[in-house]
Specification:
globular; eight-stranded mixed β-sheet; N-(1-d-carboxylethyl)-l-norvaline Dehydrogenase, domain 2; alpha/beta; binds 3-hydroxybutanoyl-coenzyme A; 297 residues; 12 helices; two-stranded antiparallel sheet; 14% strand; 46% helix; Rossmann fold
Protein backbone atom coordinates (compact mmCIF):
# COMPACT_ATOMS: atom_id res chain seq x y z
CA UNK A 1 0.00 0.00 0.00
CA UNK A 2 1.16 3.55 -0.80
CA UNK A 3 0.35 6.63 1.26
CA UNK A 4 -2.00 7.84 -1.52
CA UNK A 5 -4.07 4.68 -0.98
CA UNK A 6 -4.75 5.53 2.68
CA UNK A 7 -8.31 6.86 2.93
CA UNK A 8 -9.58 5.76 6.32
CA UNK A 9 -7.73 5.73 9.63
CA UNK A 10 -9.07 3.97 12.70
CA UNK A 11 -7.95 5.52 15.99
CA UNK A 12 -8.26 3.29 19.04
CA UNK A 13 -8.72 5.28 22.23
CA UNK A 14 -10.40 8.68 22.52
CA UNK A 15 -8.22 9.93 25.40
CA UNK A 16 -5.65 12.71 25.36
CA UNK A 17 -3.55 11.14 22.59
CA UNK A 18 -6.40 9.41 20.72
CA UNK A 19 -8.52 12.52 20.24
CA UNK A 20 -5.36 14.38 19.20
CA UNK A 21 -4.74 11.79 16.43
CA UNK A 22 -8.35 11.90 15.32
CA UNK A 23 -8.21 15.70 15.01
CA UNK A 24 -4.81 15.68 13.27
CA UNK A 25 -5.84 12.96 10.79
CA UNK A 26 -9.17 14.66 10.01
CA UNK A 27 -7.41 18.00 9.52
CA UNK A 28 -5.14 16.30 6.98
CA UNK A 29 -8.24 15.16 5.06
CA UNK A 30 -8.57 11.53 6.19
CA UNK A 31 -11.79 9.80 7.12
CA UNK A 32 -11.43 8.86 10.80
CA UNK A 33 -13.16 6.38 13.09
CA UNK A 34 -12.32 7.13 16.74
CA UNK A 35 -13.19 4.15 18.90
CA UNK A 36 -13.29 3.79 22.66
CA UNK A 37 -14.90 1.23 24.93
CA UNK A 38 -17.59 3.46 26.48
CA UNK A 39 -19.83 6.18 25.05
CA UNK A 40 -18.72 8.69 27.69
CA UNK A 41 -15.06 8.32 26.62
CA UNK A 42 -16.02 8.83 22.98
CA UNK A 43 -18.11 11.90 23.92
CA UNK A 44 -15.24 13.36 25.98
CA UNK A 45 -12.85 12.85 23.06
CA UNK A 46 -15.21 14.52 20.58
CA UNK A 47 -15.76 17.43 22.98
CA UNK A 48 -12.00 17.94 23.33
CA UNK A 49 -11.65 18.07 19.54
CA UNK A 50 -14.53 20.59 19.30
CA UNK A 51 -12.92 22.71 22.01
CA UNK A 52 -9.54 22.71 20.25
CA UNK A 53 -11.02 23.50 16.85
CA UNK A 54 -13.22 26.27 18.31
CA UNK A 55 -10.08 27.86 19.73
CA UNK A 56 -8.69 27.82 16.18
CA UNK A 57 -11.87 29.47 14.86
CA UNK A 58 -11.71 32.16 17.58
CA UNK A 59 -8.08 32.87 16.69
CA UNK A 60 -9.11 32.96 12.99
CA UNK A 61 -6.70 30.13 12.11
CA UNK A 62 -9.58 28.15 10.57
CA UNK A 63 -13.12 29.11 9.55
CA UNK A 64 -16.31 27.73 11.10
CA UNK A 65 -16.95 25.97 7.79
CA UNK A 66 -13.52 24.25 7.91
CA UNK A 67 -14.18 23.21 11.51
CA UNK A 68 -17.50 21.63 10.47
CA UNK A 69 -15.80 19.80 7.57
CA UNK A 70 -13.09 18.44 9.90
CA UNK A 71 -15.67 17.30 12.47
CA UNK A 72 -17.71 15.71 9.66
CA UNK A 73 -14.76 13.44 8.87
CA UNK A 74 -14.67 12.00 12.41
CA UNK A 75 -16.98 9.22 13.45
CA UNK A 76 -16.88 8.47 17.18
CA UNK A 77 -17.97 4.94 18.06
CA UNK A 78 -17.70 2.07 20.54
CA UNK A 79 -18.09 -0.53 17.76
CA UNK A 80 -14.64 -1.97 17.01
CA UNK A 81 -15.76 -3.84 13.90
CA UNK A 82 -17.45 -0.82 12.32
CA UNK A 83 -14.41 1.33 13.12
CA UNK A 84 -11.69 -1.03 11.92
CA UNK A 85 -13.04 -3.39 9.24
CA UNK A 86 -12.49 -1.01 6.29
CA UNK A 87 -9.57 1.00 7.77
CA UNK A 88 -6.28 1.26 5.86
CA UNK A 89 -4.29 2.13 8.98
CA UNK A 90 -5.05 1.61 12.66
CA UNK A 91 -3.40 3.94 15.19
CA UNK A 92 -3.69 2.47 18.67
CA UNK A 93 -3.58 4.63 21.78
CA UNK A 94 -5.30 2.50 24.42
CA UNK A 95 -4.02 2.04 27.98
CA UNK A 96 -0.41 0.93 28.44
CA UNK A 97 -1.16 -2.67 29.30
CA UNK A 98 0.57 -5.30 27.18
CA UNK A 99 -2.03 -8.04 27.75
CA UNK A 100 -4.88 -5.72 26.86
CA UNK A 101 -3.07 -4.42 23.79
CA UNK A 102 -2.33 -7.97 22.62
CA UNK A 103 -6.00 -8.90 23.09
CA UNK A 104 -7.14 -5.94 20.98
CA UNK A 105 -4.55 -6.67 18.27
CA UNK A 106 -5.66 -10.32 18.11
CA UNK A 107 -9.25 -9.08 17.58
CA UNK A 108 -8.10 -6.58 14.95
CA UNK A 109 -6.26 -9.35 13.11
CA UNK A 110 -9.63 -11.01 12.49
CA UNK A 111 -11.55 -7.80 11.73
CA UNK A 112 -9.18 -5.77 9.55
CA UNK A 113 -8.34 -6.00 5.84
CA UNK A 114 -5.22 -8.12 5.19
CA UNK A 115 -3.20 -5.11 4.02
CA UNK A 116 -4.22 -2.81 6.89
CA UNK A 117 -1.17 -1.50 8.79
CA UNK A 118 -1.18 -1.47 12.60
CA UNK A 119 0.60 1.46 14.29
CA UNK A 120 0.96 1.65 18.06
CA UNK A 121 1.49 4.88 19.96
CA UNK A 122 2.90 3.09 22.99
CA UNK A 123 5.32 5.24 24.97
CA UNK A 124 7.72 2.36 25.65
CA UNK A 125 6.31 -1.18 25.20
CA UNK A 126 8.03 -3.53 22.73
CA UNK A 127 6.60 -3.30 19.21
CA UNK A 128 7.81 -6.86 18.52
CA UNK A 129 5.95 -8.16 21.56
CA UNK A 130 2.66 -6.55 20.51
CA UNK A 131 3.12 -7.62 16.88
CA UNK A 132 3.41 -11.23 18.01
CA UNK A 133 -0.34 -11.17 18.77
CA UNK A 134 -1.00 -10.78 15.01
CA UNK A 135 -0.12 -12.60 11.80
CA UNK A 136 1.03 -9.35 10.17
CA UNK A 137 4.30 -8.76 12.00
CA UNK A 138 5.67 -7.10 8.83
CA UNK A 139 2.79 -4.58 8.86
CA UNK A 140 3.19 -3.64 12.51
CA UNK A 141 5.06 -0.49 13.56
CA UNK A 142 5.45 2.05 16.36
CA UNK A 143 4.16 5.60 15.77
CA UNK A 144 5.04 7.61 18.85
CA UNK A 145 3.41 11.04 18.89
CA UNK A 146 3.78 13.74 21.53
CA UNK A 147 1.23 15.60 23.59
CA UNK A 148 -0.49 17.86 22.48
CA UNK A 149 -0.63 15.88 19.23
CA UNK A 150 -1.98 18.66 16.96
CA UNK A 151 0.87 20.96 18.07
CA UNK A 152 3.96 18.78 18.56
CA UNK A 153 5.90 18.26 15.36
CA UNK A 154 7.59 14.90 15.87
CA UNK A 155 6.61 11.30 15.21
CA UNK A 156 9.12 8.68 16.30
CA UNK A 157 8.75 5.71 13.98
CA UNK A 158 9.83 2.45 15.58
CA UNK A 159 10.60 -0.65 13.60
CA UNK A 160 9.86 -3.94 15.33
CA UNK A 161 11.92 -7.06 14.66
CA UNK A 162 9.94 -7.95 11.52
CA UNK A 163 8.55 -4.60 10.37
CA UNK A 164 9.00 -4.35 6.59
CA UNK A 165 10.61 -1.45 4.82
CA UNK A 166 7.38 -0.99 2.85
CA UNK A 167 5.47 -0.46 6.12
CA UNK A 168 8.10 1.99 7.31
CA UNK A 169 7.88 3.97 4.03
CA UNK A 170 4.09 4.08 4.27
CA UNK A 171 4.04 5.32 7.88
CA UNK A 172 6.83 7.79 7.23
CA UNK A 173 4.84 9.23 4.31
CA UNK A 174 1.63 9.24 6.34
CA UNK A 175 3.26 11.06 9.27
CA UNK A 176 4.54 13.72 6.87
CA UNK A 177 1.06 14.04 5.36
CA UNK A 178 -0.15 14.70 8.92
CA UNK A 179 2.27 17.64 9.01
CA UNK A 180 4.86 15.95 11.23
CA UNK A 181 8.59 15.36 10.95
CA UNK A 182 9.90 11.89 11.63
CA UNK A 183 12.85 10.04 13.10
CA UNK A 184 13.44 6.33 12.64
CA UNK A 185 14.31 4.37 15.77
CA UNK A 186 15.22 0.73 16.15
CA UNK A 187 13.26 -0.95 18.89
CA UNK A 188 14.48 -0.36 22.46
CA UNK A 189 12.53 0.52 25.62
CA UNK A 190 11.43 4.17 25.48
CA UNK A 191 12.72 4.49 21.91
CA UNK A 192 14.73 7.76 21.62
CA UNK A 193 12.81 10.59 23.30
CA UNK A 194 11.52 8.79 26.39
CA UNK A 195 14.91 7.12 26.85
CA UNK A 196 16.17 10.61 27.74
CA UNK A 197 13.00 12.12 29.17
CA UNK A 198 12.43 9.41 31.77
CA UNK A 199 15.80 9.73 33.61
CA UNK A 200 15.30 13.53 33.48
CA UNK A 201 11.90 13.16 35.18
CA UNK A 202 13.16 10.67 37.78
CA UNK A 203 16.17 12.79 38.67
CA UNK A 204 13.96 15.88 39.09
CA UNK A 205 11.79 13.96 41.58
CA UNK A 206 14.88 12.70 43.45
CA UNK A 207 16.09 16.30 43.85
CA UNK A 208 12.73 17.23 45.33
CA UNK A 209 12.71 14.19 47.60
CA UNK A 210 16.21 15.08 48.83
CA UNK A 211 15.32 18.73 49.42
CA UNK A 212 17.83 19.97 46.84
CA UNK A 213 15.32 22.44 45.45
CA UNK A 214 11.60 23.17 45.20
CA UNK A 215 9.07 22.41 42.48
CA UNK A 216 8.84 26.05 41.48
CA UNK A 217 12.59 26.68 41.51
CA UNK A 218 13.46 23.56 39.52
CA UNK A 219 10.84 24.49 36.92
CA UNK A 220 12.19 28.03 36.84
CA UNK A 221 15.77 26.76 36.52
CA UNK A 222 14.98 24.49 33.59
CA UNK A 223 12.72 26.89 31.70
CA UNK A 224 15.18 29.78 32.03
CA UNK A 225 18.42 27.82 32.10
CA UNK A 226 17.69 25.38 29.29
CA UNK A 227 14.93 27.25 27.46
CA UNK A 228 12.48 24.35 27.81
CA UNK A 229 8.84 25.43 27.31
CA UNK A 230 7.88 23.65 30.55
CA UNK A 231 9.95 22.74 33.61
CA UNK A 232 10.12 19.04 34.61
CA UNK A 233 7.35 19.21 37.24
CA UNK A 234 4.96 21.09 34.98
CA UNK A 235 5.73 18.58 32.24
CA UNK A 236 5.35 15.62 34.62
CA UNK A 237 1.87 16.87 35.53
CA UNK A 238 1.12 17.38 31.83
CA UNK A 239 2.24 13.86 30.83
CA UNK A 240 0.66 12.18 33.88
CA UNK A 241 2.41 10.63 36.88
CA UNK A 242 0.80 7.23 36.24
CA UNK A 243 2.22 7.18 32.70
CA UNK A 244 5.65 8.17 34.03
CA UNK A 245 5.56 5.46 36.71
CA UNK A 246 4.54 2.87 34.14
CA UNK A 247 7.46 3.78 31.87
CA UNK A 248 9.91 3.80 34.80
CA UNK A 249 8.82 0.36 35.99
CA UNK A 250 9.00 -0.93 32.42
CA UNK A 251 12.55 0.47 31.97
CA UNK A 252 13.66 -1.08 35.27
CA UNK A 253 12.32 -4.47 34.24
CA UNK A 254 13.60 -4.39 30.65
CA UNK A 255 17.08 -2.90 31.22
CA UNK A 256 17.58 -4.59 34.59
CA UNK A 257 19.47 -1.50 35.60
CA UNK A 258 19.08 0.28 38.94
CA UNK A 259 19.51 3.68 37.33
CA UNK A 260 15.79 3.46 36.49
CA UNK A 261 14.74 2.94 40.12
CA UNK A 262 11.60 4.84 41.02
CA UNK A 263 11.63 7.59 43.67
CA UNK A 264 9.23 6.60 46.44
CA UNK A 265 7.56 10.01 46.16
CA UNK A 266 6.39 9.23 42.62
CA UNK A 267 4.90 5.89 43.67
CA UNK A 268 3.18 7.48 46.68
CA UNK A 269 1.69 10.24 44.56
CA UNK A 270 0.29 7.73 42.06
CA UNK A 271 -1.17 5.68 44.92
CA UNK A 272 -2.82 8.85 46.22
CA UNK A 273 -4.27 9.43 42.70
CA UNK A 274 -2.35 12.71 42.42
CA UNK A 275 -1.63 12.09 38.77
CA UNK A 276 -1.18 15.64 37.53
CA UNK A 277 -3.49 17.80 35.46
CA UNK A 278 -5.91 14.99 34.69
CA UNK A 279 -6.86 14.56 38.37
CA UNK A 280 -6.45 18.24 39.26
CA UNK A 281 -3.44 17.63 41.49
CA UNK A 282 0.13 16.45 41.01
CA UNK A 283 3.22 18.51 41.71
CA UNK A 284 0.89 21.50 41.36
CA UNK A 285 -2.68 22.02 42.55
CA UNK A 286 -4.80 22.95 39.53
CA UNK A 287 -7.85 23.98 41.55
CA UNK A 288 -6.01 27.28 42.09
CA UNK A 289 -5.53 29.84 39.33
CA UNK A 290 -2.64 30.02 38.61
CA UNK A 291 -1.78 26.51 39.88
CA UNK A 292 0.25 26.45 43.12
CA UNK A 293 2.93 23.91 44.11
CA UNK A 294 1.72 21.18 46.46
CA UNK A 295 3.49 20.29 49.69
CA UNK A 296 5.06 16.83 49.95
CA UNK A 297 5.63 14.23 52.61
N1 LIG B 1 -4.35 20.70 22.09
C1 LIG B 1 -4.26 21.36 20.93
N2 LIG B 1 -3.62 22.53 20.78
C2 LIG B 1 -3.05 23.07 21.86
C3 LIG B 1 -3.11 22.46 23.13
C4 LIG B 1 -3.81 21.22 23.23
N3 LIG B 1 -3.90 20.56 24.36
N4 LIG B 1 -2.44 23.22 24.02
C5 LIG B 1 -1.98 24.29 23.35
N5 LIG B 1 -2.35 24.19 22.05
C6 LIG B 1 -2.00 25.10 20.97
C7 LIG B 1 -2.61 26.47 21.17
O1 LIG B 1 -3.90 26.55 20.59
C8 LIG B 1 -1.63 27.35 20.43
O2 LIG B 1 -1.89 27.26 19.04
P1 LIG B 1 -1.56 28.49 18.03
O3 LIG B 1 -0.08 28.74 18.12
O4 LIG B 1 -1.99 27.94 16.71
O5 LIG B 1 -2.35 29.63 18.52
C9 LIG B 1 -0.27 26.68 20.69
O6 LIG B 1 -0.58 25.33 21.02
C10 LIG B 1 0.49 27.33 21.81
O7 LIG B 1 -0.36 27.29 22.95
P2 LIG B 1 -0.43 28.41 24.07
O8 LIG B 1 -0.01 29.72 23.49
O9 LIG B 1 -1.73 28.33 24.75
O10 LIG B 1 0.59 27.90 25.17
P3 LIG B 1 2.14 27.71 25.10
O11 LIG B 1 2.80 28.61 24.16
O12 LIG B 1 2.52 27.71 26.52
O13 LIG B 1 2.31 26.22 24.50
C11 LIG B 1 2.56 23.91 24.75
C12 LIG B 1 1.70 25.14 25.07
C13 LIG B 1 2.57 23.70 23.22
C14 LIG B 1 1.89 22.72 25.41
C15 LIG B 1 4.03 24.17 25.26
O14 LIG B 1 3.99 24.50 26.62
C16 LIG B 1 4.92 22.98 25.09
O15 LIG B 1 5.44 22.70 24.02
N6 LIG B 1 5.16 22.19 26.20
C17 LIG B 1 5.96 20.99 26.17
C18 LIG B 1 5.13 19.86 25.66
C19 LIG B 1 5.91 18.57 25.59
O16 LIG B 1 7.08 18.46 25.94
N7 LIG B 1 5.23 17.51 25.14
C20 LIG B 1 5.80 16.20 25.07
C21 LIG B 1 5.44 15.42 26.30
S1 LIG B 1 6.18 13.81 26.32
C22 LIG B 1 5.14 12.86 25.43
O17 LIG B 1 4.08 13.27 25.00
C23 LIG B 1 5.58 11.44 25.20
C24 LIG B 1 4.92 10.46 26.11
O18 LIG B 1 5.24 9.16 25.65
C25 LIG B 1 5.35 10.59 27.55
Amino acid sequence: MKVEDVKKICVLGAGLMGNGFAQTCAQAGFEVAMRDIEDRFVENGLNMIKKNLSRGVKKEKITQEQMDTILGRINGTTDLKAAASDADVVIEAIVENLDLKKKVYAELEEICKPDCVFGSNTSSISITDMASATKRTDKFIGMHFFNPVPVMRLVEIIKGYETSDETYQLIDGLSKKLGKQTVLVNEAPGFAVNRLLLPFFLEAIFTLQEGVTTVEDMDKAITLGLNHPMGPFTLLDFVGLDTTLFIADYFYKEFQDSKYRVPTLLRKMVRANNLGRKTGKGFYDYSQKPPVPCSFR
